[in-house]
Amino acid sequence: MTSVTAATVAGGTATIDEPAVADLRGKLQGPLLRADDDGYEAARRVWNGNIDRHPALIARCTGVADLMAAVRFARDNSLVVVIRGGAHNAAGNGTIQGGMLIDLSLMKGIQVDPVQRIARAQGGVAWKEFDREAQAFDLGTTGGTVSNTGLAGLTLGGGVGWLMGKHGLTVDNLLSVDLVTAGGEFLKASEEHNPDLFWGLRGGGGNFGVATSFEYRLHPVGPAVLGGMVLHPMAAARDVLRFYREFCGKLPDEAEALVALITAPDGTPLIALILGYNGPIDEGERVLAPARQCGSPVHDAVGPLLHAVRNTLLDEPNAIHGIQRYWKSGFSRDLSDGLIDTMVETAQSFTSPPSAILAVYIHGAATRIAPTVTAFGLRDVQWDVNLISQWTAPDESPLHIDWTRRQWGKMEKDLSGTAYLNHLAGDDRPEKVRASYGPNYDGLLELKRKYDPTNMFRINANISPAAP
Ligand SMILES: Cc1cc2nc3c(=O)[nH]c(=O)nc-3n(C[C@H](O)[C@H](O)[C@H](O)COP(=O)(O)OP(=O)(O)OC[C@H]3O[C@@H](n4cnc5c(N)ncnc54)[C@H](O)[C@@H]3O)c2cc1C
Questions:
Q1: How does pLDDT run across 408-462, given as a tens digit for each residue?
Q2: Is 60 inside a domain boundary?
Q3: Ligand 1 mean position to 18 CA, how many Å?
Q4: Do 62 and 144 belong together in one domain?
Q5: The CATH number of the domain where 38 resides is what?
Q6: Same domain, 46 and 193
Q7: Is 157 in the pocket of ligand 1 (CB under 6 A)?
Q8: Phi and psi of 323, rounded to 5°?
Q9: What is the overall mean pLDDT for the chain?
Q10: How many angstroms does the Cα of residue 149 sit away from the middle of ligand 1?
């Protein structure tokens, strides 16, 4: 039996002796893993295979009692903690080098109340699991567009998805959060209980504690909605993107439109209009018709389907865990001609077939809430523009990462200087992280100093309590 050396909040390391580790193990129902334990290797990995970190300890928690014990252990030993929900954060904020990983991915409880139209879900639930339970009652809420993304991290950062035009962001449908603070205290956050914390959890990310469960408002989504892709050859990309920009400007709240520059499995470069409508099917057919009639599509797969199935349309290859990735992101308010040109030039020089450019139009109810009502402060009508490089051979990483940085440098000059919090990259400048909290940064800083003064939870889009 050996001691464990782990990173501390003061910036050094602490050696924790075996009896203390054994004591924590005895308090947990789930496994506590160290580097030489079975299961450690799989448990340290995240969605992005390019992230290669070794936590000193991994607490795989099965419930709130485990979470409180794990956080109190970290508190008593002054450890830096990373919180994992679905492990999907592209920057690798679901794992840590040298600190303690508190992993909720075994916590899968979901309860739907179809009468009240409310659902409760634990912090380890993925959207496909949530969607399945809610869809059983033809209900849903705004959630991720790739089905195995974690509900916890996505919600705390804002939540951009298929229902946002009609029903707002995920945080706009959040009714309460149960949380274990850095002090190891269990709190409920809602409009009635700890409303300051509830405000901060709706867009402030994982800065304030471990969210054990979430309560959401549900909406009718069925029995069917409209969704699917219209594909054009890459040669038409400039025209399609210009059309798309104008089309988005006319969308009613019920409609959603994304665009992606991709490579088909047979190697053909394509541009995809990814469309959805949340209302009567015939009305949706009429609203989406211009996007299906523009130019000369090579494929049109828009049709009625389940909301839960629509949330899987972008799964390939994005749901696969372990591929190498490097992801840059930023908001654009106008999708200018200059940006369109650079997007097309970038897509024409992808260094790896699974790479993509994805733009998500944020509009409607998601943008009509005043910026300070929730911590998600960037409520403009805008596009979330992403350059997502994906490849399989780890030794090719420098090639793909260098290319992505170069191309992103060209795209970024036509973007707004902010990004969706959940899409920030690990190497984004601190000014960009700060700007991405919009007008709410100072309020969030105050909250961070109250709920996590030692910055135990710092592996995130961090709000440092030591900031001036
Ligand atoms: C392929 C792909 C598709 C995506 N699609 C969408 C999309 O459609 N819409 C959208 O809004 N976002 C999307 N995202 C971004 C997504 O919201 C973030 O990656 C988010 O961090 C994922 O949450 P997670 O729980 O899986 O993250 P993890 O990697 O597990 O955790 C990331 C961070 O989230 C916080 N966190 C996680 N769980 C908890 C918890 N229980 N308590 C407190 N903090 C916690 C922590 O700060 C943690 O460091 C996508 C990401 C990927 C990779």
A1: 999 999 999 999 999 999 999 999 999 999 999 999 999 999 999 999 999 999 9
A2: yes
A3: 33
A4: no
A5: 3.30.43.10
A6: no
A7: yes
A8: -65, 150
A9: 97
A10: 6
Q: Is residue 463 part of a domain?
A: no
Domain co-membership, 402 together with 277: yes
**Distance between Cα 281 and ligand 1 center (Å):** 31
pLDDT tier, 1 (very low <50, low <70, confident <90, very high otherwise): low
Report the percentage of the chain scoring pLDDT > 70. 100
Give me the CATH number covering residue 379: 3.40.462.20
CA of 60 to the centre of ligand 1 (A): 18
Task: Encode pLDDT of 264-309 as tens digits.
Answer: 999 999 999 999 999 999 999 999 999 999 999 999 999 999 999 9
CB 210 less than 6 A from any atom of ligand 1: yes
Nearest Cα residue to atom 17 of ligand 1: 154
Read off the DSSP letter of residue 149.
Answer: S
Tokens found for residue 13: 């390391």
Q: How many CB atoms lie within 10 A of CB 430?
A: 10
Is residue 160 within 6 Å of ligand 1 at its C-beta?
yes
Does the global pTM surpass 0.85?
yes
3-class secondary structure, 160? coil
Q: Is residue 94 part of a domain?
A: yes
Range of the domain at 67: 4-103
φ/ψ bin of 98: left (φ > 0), alpha (ψ from -120 to 50), beta (otherwise): left
For residue 130, CA distances in Å to 33, 138, 147, 301 come to 28, 12, 9, 25
- Answer whether 184 contacts ligand 1 (Cβ < 6 A): no
| Lookup: tokens for 251 | 């969308």
Whether residue 468 lies inside any domain: the answer is no
**Section 372-390 average pLDDT:** 98
- Both 98 and 139 in one domain: the answer is no
The ligand 1 atom at the shortest distance from the C-alpha of residue 457 is 47
